[in-house]
Amino acid sequence: MNLTGVGLPRPRRRVSRVAASAAFSAILMLGLFVGVASAQDVEGCLICHGDPNFTDPTPPENLEEGEDLSLYVDAEKFLGSVHDELKCSDCHKGFLLTIPNHQIDVDKDFRQVAIEACEGCHQEAFQQYQTSEHAQRFYEDQAGPICISCHGSHAIRRVNLGEESADFKMSMARDSCGQCHEDKFEQASHEFHFKALSLGYERAATCFDCHGFHDNLALTSGEPETVEACRQCHPGANKGFTYFQMHLQEGFQDAWWGVRAVYYLFSTLLVVVLVTGIAYTTVHFQKETRTMLGVFGRGAGRLFGFIRHLEEESVKEREGRPNGPEDHSNDKPENDHRGML
Amino acid sequence: MAAGTDAREGVRLVYRRFSAFHRFNHYLVMISFFGLVLTGIPLKFKDSVWAEFFMDLIGGVEGAGFVHRVMAVFNFTYFFLEMGYMAWYVAARKGPLFGPDSIVPGKKDWQDIKGMFRWFLGKGPKPRFNRFTYWEKFDFWSLMAGTVLIGGTGLMMWFPEFTASLLPGVSLNVALVLHSNEAFLATGVIFIFVHFFSAHGRPESFPADEVIFSGSLPLDHYIADRPAEYENRLRAGTLDQVVRPAPTGPMTRVNSWLMAIFSVVALFAATYTMLLVVWPLLF
């Protein structure tokens, strides 16, 4: 509206620029607070948290000198996640929408807050998690992983159980399980199931297909729960079946001695047969070729001699044929060539 | 023109080396071998760039698995046909098991090997071979032994639950190691360096030895190649069992077309297989 007054004569009473700017800022700040308070949602929070350089102004004490705690949330990733319709405050419970230091109970560990946030909606998964070794270790000394350790927080993907692509299963296993169980992941990737999965076979098992995803079991050969795990895909599996070694190093150093013995035996055999095979073949065919071409001359002359021989052979064969109409028509030019050779 | 061709070939004599039965078996070996290698090797070298591409081309892991099993059945077929034939050969007393014409290795093969090395060093003439040379026998028996090993371990993994009902599960680990290493041995070594070079890659038969497709070869080639068998037959008067006029008629044409198609395809497949095998060794 003010803009319409641009062309009019200025008001007599002048306000200083400083005062005007202060008033403007005050209105803006007020607007911001009112906006955040009333919106209580994503846009409001992202005013500050959408800035990639936004760090905690009052960093926790355990942070090292010069290190910043980023409080940035990638809006695009969040709005592309399965929780895109939730508000920030749906999970970040117990926050006051004031600036700074939103949390009421600042002493409460953020992991506890996070766990409770997930439990709010995912009770079944939460109950399963309680029975896992992961949960045990978390409640003992907070060393075990919680929901967000595997699922992430702001970019949680939608999971359609049983309908996932091989790529998705593979990346879930790598990004979640593989973070901590690097060695097991590496070992499994040499194994048949993972190989098939990485070549696009989505029915092949990955970590959580055997170990479960919330009640993660450590599976031991011969145990009933291991038999159950195998039976999901191999209904006829018995106790003996579970003695298959799933996680082995690439050179089989940690495998059963029988596997190792066969592996070393065959590797040796392979090298021996390969070396003797190549050596023998080379000698045999060098000799045979030399002998075959040897009658046609020496050195490079052999090759020309051999070509001349082939030429003569073909001419001889053509001449040996009984008279046919097409033979006669071809005779003359061929004979001319022979004369040149 | 057709009459003229017949008249001309009617006078040509050929040596009959392989019966239709053996040629059929060779086709089975060819088809199943390439089928098995091309569907199995991508799984062994899944990190190679071509593995995923090739898997998608043949219908993913599921499609490849299906083709692999069909080809395995072909593999068992030729194995049991050949073993059955040999059993019948012995039972019906078609010929002696350890004679000069036999595929069974004997003393003469050891002498031939020694003679061959003398020839390599220029210290003697080339040995005079019987019906089967020592490298052909090696080729044949390594294929048969490999089929038992690779087929047995393949069956173990095809029916893992049944295997586990007889043996502990770790036997499947052993089976996988055996299967995969034997496959590599058979492909990379026996096939490429023994069979492909010695049977088809020799200067006089390159790019493919016709005899396994047509069943016969010109008489003069036979006399030069297998002098010992020729002399034996000449002495015993049994030359007429194997020497006959060159075959004529429509089947000859079908055979030569089949041969042309198969040998071109096989040459490409063999080159490709070699590439697949050599690739992971280099990178």
According to DSSP, the number of beta strands of chain A is 0
Broad shape of chain B: globular
Order of helices and strands of chain B: HEHHHHHHHHEHHEH
Amount of beta strand of chain B = under 5%
**Uncertain spans of chain A:** 1-8, 322-341
Helix content of chain B: over 70%
Q: Any idea what the shape of chain A is? A: elongated
Please state the structural category of chain B: mainly alpha
Give the fraction of residues assigned to helices of chain A: 55-70%
Largest interface: A-B, 52 and 48 residues
The amount of beta strand of chain A, in percent, is under 5%
Q: Please give the order of strands in the largest beta sheet of chain B.
A: 2-1-3
- The termini of chain A sit apart by 104 Å
Query: How would you classify the helix and strand content of chain A by structural class?
Result: mainly alpha
The oligomeric state of the chains shown is heterodimer
Give a verbal description of the structure.
The complex is a heterodimer of chains A (341) and B (283). Chain A is mainly alpha-helical and 341 residues long. Chain A is built from 16 helices and no strands. Among the domains of chain A are: 18-57 and 69-102, no CATH class; 108-158, no CATH class. Chain A is 56% helix and 0% strand. The longest helix of chain A is centred in the C-terminal third of the chain and has 38 residues, at 257-294. Chain A is elongated and about 115 Å long. Chain B has 283 residues and is mostly helical. Chain B contains twelve helices and three strands. Chain B has helices at 2-10, 20-44, 49-57, 60-91, 107-120, 134-158, 160-166, 170-200, 211-214, 219-225, 227-236, 250-282, and strands at 13-16, 216-218, 243-245. The longest helix of chain B has 33 residues, at 250-282. Chain B starts with a helix and ends with a helix. Mean pLDDT of chain B is 84; it is low at 1-10. Classes of the chains: A mainly alpha (341), B mainly alpha (283). At the A-B interface, helix 11 and helix 14 of A face helix 1, helix 3, helix 4, helix 5 and helix 7 of B.
